[in-house]
Design a protein that fits this description.
Elements lengths: L1 E6 L3 H13 L6 E2 L2 E4 L5 E4 L8 E2 L14 E5 L8 H8 L7 E6 L5 H4 L6 E4 L4 H19 L3 E5 L2 E5 L4 E7 L2 E6 L3 E5 L2 H7 L4 E5 L2 E4 L3 E4 L3 E4 L4 E3 L2 H18 L1
Parallel strand pairs: 1-2, 1-6, 6-7, 7-8
Antiparallel strand pairs: 3-4, 4-5, 9-10, 11-12, 11-15, 12-13, 14-15, 16-17, 17-18
Length: 254
C-alpha cells in the first residue's frame, strides 16, 4: 500500500483529485493518508479534517523520511504566491523516493517542472485517463525502487542482483545464468524459485527462459528480441500468457 498526499489550496480541487484517485485502477494499492496545504507557507494536516485543524510545520525544515508520502500531487500555483515547484525543491530531499505529480492550469510552468525530479505534469482540468496514467507510472516506479534484490550463490560467494538490471534469466539443468546489462552471473538455483522472488514484469516466455518485459523490443509470436539484439524463443505453451502480459506492461508504461 502506497500513501498519497495532495498539496492544493483550493478545497474543491483537492476533493476532486481525491475522488479521481479513488476512482483510478490503482486505488486498491493507494491510501490518501495525509493532506498538505499551502496556507502561510505549508501546513501539515490529517486528511479527514484538513480544512479545520491545521498543524503548522517549520517551513525551513523538510519533513522526516517517515513522514513523506510515496506519491505527492502538487498544484504549481498556490495561495500567497507560493510556487509548488519551489515547494518540492525545499521540502522533498533530492534522494527521497517520492513520486511527484505536478498539477496546474498554467502550462507555462511546465519547463520549470522538468528541472525537478517528477513523474508527471497534469494540466487542469484534470482528465481521469491522464491521472490514471500518472498514477500507474508512479506505482510502477515505486515497485521498481522497492523490489527486493536477489541473493544467489556462486561457489562460496553470495552475489547481490538488482532486478531492474536483469534482462533475462536462462535455466541450464541445476544452474541458471542471470544476464544483467553489464555482466552474466552463473549460479546454482531453480528458475521457478527466482521467478517467485522477482517483480511481475518478469515473465516466462519458455520453460527455460524468464525475461524482463522492460527490455523487450519485438515479439513475433515464436520469438522475442531484446534491446541488445538478443533473440529468445517463445514456446507455444507460454505464447498467449506472454502476449497478454506484454500488452498490459506496455499500456502501463505509456
Amino acid at each position: 500500500m502506497y500513501t498519497v498526499a495532495i498539496v492544493e489550496d483550493d478545497a474543491a480541487h483537492a476533493a476532486e483529485l481525491a475522488r479521481m484517485i479513488d476512482a483510478s485502477p490503482m486505488a486498491e494499492r493507494l491510501e490518501l493518508a495525509t493532506a498538505w496545504r499551502a496556507v502561510d507557507n505549508v501546513r501539515w494536516t490529517p486528511s479527514d479534517d484538513a480544512s479545520q485543524h491545521p498543524l503548522d510545520a517549520d517551513p525551513h525544515r523538510s519533513p522526516s523520511a517517515a513522514a513523506l508520502p510515496d506519491i505527492l500531487f502538487v498544484d504549481v500555483r498556490l495561495a500567497d504566491g507560493v510556487n509548488g515547484i519551489d515547494l518540492v525543491r525545499r521540502l522533498i530531499p533530492s534522494a527521497a523516493p517520492v513520486q511527484v505529480i505536478y498539477v496546474s492550469a498554467y502550462l507555462e510552468y511546465a519547463p520549470a517542472a522538468y528541472h525537478t525530479r517528477h513523474t508527471w505534469f497534469l494540466s487542469k482540468p484534470v482528465v481521469q485517463d491522464e491521472l490514471n496514467a500518472a498514477l500507474t507510472r508512479a506505482v510502477d516506479a515505486l515497485d521498481t525502487e522497492r523490489a527486493e534484490p536477489l541473493l544467489v550463490h556462486q561457489g562460496t560467494s553470495l552475489i547481490r542482483i538488482a532486478p531492474h538490471e536483469v534482462r533475462y534469466i536462462e535455466s541450464d539443468r541445476r544452474k541458471v545464468r542471470i544476464h544483467e546489462r553489464s555482466r552474466t552471473v552463473e549460479a546454482y538455483a531453480r528458475i521457478s524459485e527466482l521467478e517467485m522472488q522477482l517483480p511481475d514484469q518478469f515473465v516466462r516466455c519458455h520453460k527455460s527462459f524468464l525475461v524482463n518485459l522492460a527490455y523487450v523490443t519485438e515479439f513475433t509470436g515464436r520469438e522475442l528480441v531484446l534491446t541488445d539484439g538478443t533473440h529468445l524463443p517463445v514456446s507455444q505453451r507460454c505464447r498467449k500468457t506472454f502476449a497478454e502480459r506484454l500488452v498490459s506492461f506496455v499500456r502501463r508504461s505509456l
